[in-house]
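seq:
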Amino acid sequence: MKKIPKGKVLTYKEVARRAGRPRAFRAVGNILNKNKNKKIPCHRVIRSDREIGGYNRGEKKKITLLQKEGVIIKNKRVVL
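struct:
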């Protein structure tokens, strides 16, 4: 998670794959949802369909954080 640079995003599936558990994408989402450490950039993980997905501090906060980092979002989807 900490290796995802500002302005970049990965999918839950890609995070699971990089962790050596390619089918554990739902577990990744559940773990990130429970994270309370603000130093871990959970907001940089999105769904495979480029929708922003959930965030334990709220959808608006996730969008704001991503936009501040230069990620383009249109209709709650990341524009790649």
